[in-house]
From TrEMBL:
InterPro entries cross-referenced by the UniProt entry: HAD-like_sf, HAD_hydro_PyrdxlP_Pase-like, HAD_sf, Pase_PHOSPHO-typ
One Pfam family hit: Put_Phosphatase
Positions bound to Mg(2+): D8, D10, D179
Cofactor: Mg(2+)
Protein's name in the database: PHOP2 phosphatase
Gene Ontology terms, MF aspect: metal ion binding; phosphatase activity
Organism expressing this protein natively: Scytalopus superciliaris
The organism's place on the tree of life at top rank: Eukaryota
PANTHER family from the UniProt entry: PHOSPHATASE, ORPHAN 1, 2, PYRIDOXAL PHOSPHATE PHOSPHATASE PHOSPHO2
Entry keywords, A to Z: Hydrolase, Magnesium, Metal-binding
Residues annotated as binding substrate: D19, D99
Family: Belongs to the HAD-like hydrolase superfamily. PHOSPHO family.
UniProt xrefs under Gene3D superfamilies: HAD superfamily/HAD-like (3.40.50.1000)
């Protein structure tokens, strides 16, 4: 009996968006209007590439970025929740599927000593170039019209589950914890026995309730959370059953 926990990162594990938080490193802690207005829907990774070039051009170095990123607060109750999951790894496999990047997530999890809680992190690959600029790439290519060009979380989840099955691992239940519009696609892939946990007041919750109003609700159960202690209460019930 094993459960799979799937977490988004921005506004779910941390209480901010890591990509917008990095702007604190920019001169005057803001981006020029031309750069800010250059974002095109569905092309966030390319936009962040330009932001990282701007930061590099302005002499922002890796250590300054790292110091800034590790000040991001975790969501209320999240540190306790991750500690609880870490103590029960025999029952929970735990992955992150995020539109952030490997460098940011790595820094933040390692600084808080939560790296070992997660079995795998699926996010946009990032590295520092020889000239010290942070570069980020699309996670994969996909054919899903609903998702941003660089990442379809449903595809990631499906491929992970297929790989686990090949290893002889299947899950009693998948618990999907997220907040954003790009979490809807994987939530719609979940089965009746699974559960989606959208963050209260965020896009995912609104989209799920819109679907219910349109009489095409998601198949899985839905439990809204506002603090990670809500998630922990549910997990404690789950392992008691």
């Amino acid at each position: 009996m094993k459960f799979l926990l799937v977490f988004d990162f921005d506004h779910t594990i941390i209480d901010e968006n890591s990509d917008t938080w990095i702007v604190k490193c920019a001169p005057d802690r803001k981006l020029p209007n031309g750069l800010r207005n250059s974002y095109q829907p569905g092309h966030w990774t390319e936009y962040m590439g330009r932001v990282f070039v701007y930061l590099g051009d302005n002499g922002v170095k890796e250590d300054e970025m790292k110091r800034t990123m590790t000040t991001i607060p975790f969501t209320a109750g999240m540190k306790d929740l991750l500690g609880f999951i870490g103590e029960n790894k025999d029952l929970f496999d735990c992955i992150i599927v995020s539109d952030s990047n490997t460098v940011f997530i790595d820094w933040i999890l390692k600084a808080a000593d939560f790296h070992d809680v997660f079995d795998e992190v699926f996010t946009n690959p990032a590295t520092f170039s020889s000239s010290g600029y942070l570069t980020v790439q699309n996670f994969h290519t996909h054919h899903c019209a609903k998702c941003p060009k660089n990442l379809c979380k449903r595809k990631v989840l499906k491929e992970f589950l297929d790989k686990q099955l090949e290893r002889g691992i299947s899950y009693t239940q998948i618990v999907y914890v997220g907040d954003g519009g790009n979490d809807l696609c994987p939530v719609m892939f979940l089965k009746k026995s699974d559960i989606a946990m959208p963050r209260q007041g965020y896009t995912l919750e609104k989209k799920i309730s819109q679907l219910a109003q349109d009489l095409s609700p998601v198949q899985c159960s839905v439990l809204v959370w506002s603090s990670a202690s809500d998630i922990m209460s549910y997990l404690k019930l789950l392992i008691k059953e």
